[in-house]
Write a structure and sequence with these properties.
Elements (H helix, E strand, L loop, with lengths): L7 E6 L3 E8 L2 E9 L5 H13 L8 E6 L2 E3 L2 E3 L14 H9 L3 E5 H12 L7 E6 L3 E7 L2 E3 L22 H5 L1 H10 L6 H9 L3 H25 L3 E5 L8 H9 L10 E3 L6 H11 L10
Parallel strand pairs: 1-4, 4-7, 8-11, 11-12
Antiparallel strand pairs: 1-2, 2-3, 5-6, 8-9, 9-10
Helix pairs in contact: 1-2, 3-9, 6-7, 7-8
The structure holds 2-acetamido-2-deoxy-6-O-phosphono-alpha-D-mannopyranose (BMX).
């Protein structure tokens, strides 16, 4: 898989943090992590990317960016502005190319990570759905060796699943990291996800209740995904998804399903770098998305 081509500057821009790395042949050499600026909108976010990549100028000939939000035809939208308030149709590819001076390609973050896990990680060669449980809940689908993005970029956005009614709260609103933080505060326990998991490990009933309720809701969505697409595996990643014990909770919720309906859940093998590796490979080798790599 290694090659000697010029590295790709890969970027994974999320609601709170942004990762950058130089990627070559499925390997990420140098990488840095910065905070996504809380104010200033997309111009500030992309300025911060260009500044962080400054020391690597000349070391890459193209760039590939994975972002939280919908991406289609090089433009960017927020589905959930609470995760990141992206203005509708922001010209992501053109604006980043103008800052970096190289060609740019762009994908949704979960779609990129799905491609990364398919090419280099826990689901190599499989039909897979990658699900990230982080600030929001996103997913990417690889079937028959093709990443499904959808014409409007929507494919895989399981955070939008409405279980009970169209106007009922959707999965992300009920069970993502942002929702857990909100519900912990409402229960009088301010703090971040780490605190919540630590409290659950200590046997605190409030934390156990929140985590098991989120796991139950997410597991139900995964069962629906399995019934809809019948992937070989569902790869779980994201800060909440990879937190100690969360995958075991999901497996426990799904254990009672009969065999063909029960997903094969796997832990993401590439961790936080799945998006970087996926978007770099997807942009560098578009011919890989033909089904022939299966
Ligand atoms: C939201 C949505 C998805 C994203 C998912 C996970 C926005 C801004 N984002 O559902 O596009 O894939 O969150 O994003 O609408 P993360 O930043 O929490 O990893």
């Amino acid at each position: 898989m290694k090659d000697t081509a010029t590295p790709v500057l890969a970027i994974d821009l999320g609601g709170t943090k942004t990762l950058l790395g130089l990627v070559n042949g499925g390997t990420c050499g140098q990488a840095v992590r910065i905070a996504t600026p809380g104010a200033g909108g997309p111009s500030a976010w992309l300025d911060a990317v260009a500044e962080a990549a400054g020391p690597w100028r000349g070391a890459y000939a193209r760039a590939a960016i994975a972002v939280t939000g919908l991406v289609a035809q090089g433009r960017w939208w927020a589905l959930n502005p609470d995760v990141l308030p992206v203005p509708a149709g922001f010209p992501l590819v053109d604006e980043l190319a103008a800052r970096l001076g190289v060609p740019v390609c762009a994908l949704n973050d979960a779609q990129a990570a799905a491609w990364g896990e398919y090419r280099f990680g826990a689901g190599q060669g499989c039909d897979l759905v990658f699900v990230t449980v982080s600030t929001g809940i996103g997913a990417g689908i690889v079937l028959g060796g093709r990443l499904l993005t959808g014409h409007r970029g929507l494919a895989g956005h399981i955070g939008q699943f409405r279980a009970e009614a169209v106007d009922a709260p959707w999965l992300e609103h009920l069970a993502a990291g942002g929702a857990l933080t909100r519900d912990a505060i409402a229960a009088g326990h301010a703090g971040d996800g780490q605190k919540l998991f630590a409290a659950a490990a200590d046997g605190d009933a409030w934390a156990e209740h929140l985590l098991s309720r989120a796991a139950r809701r997410i597991a139900a969505a995964l069962a629906s995904v399995q019934a809809l697409l019948d992937p070989d595996c569902i790869v779980v990643g994201g800060g909440v998804g990879l937190a100690p014990g969360f995958l075991a909770r999901l497996r426990g919720e799904l254990a009672g399903l009969p065999d063909p309906l029960r997903p094969d859940l796997r832990e993401a093998a590439l961790g936080a770098r799945a998006g970087l590796l996926g978007v770099a490979d997807f942009g560098e080798h578009p011919q890989a998305n033909t089904g022939e790599t299966r």
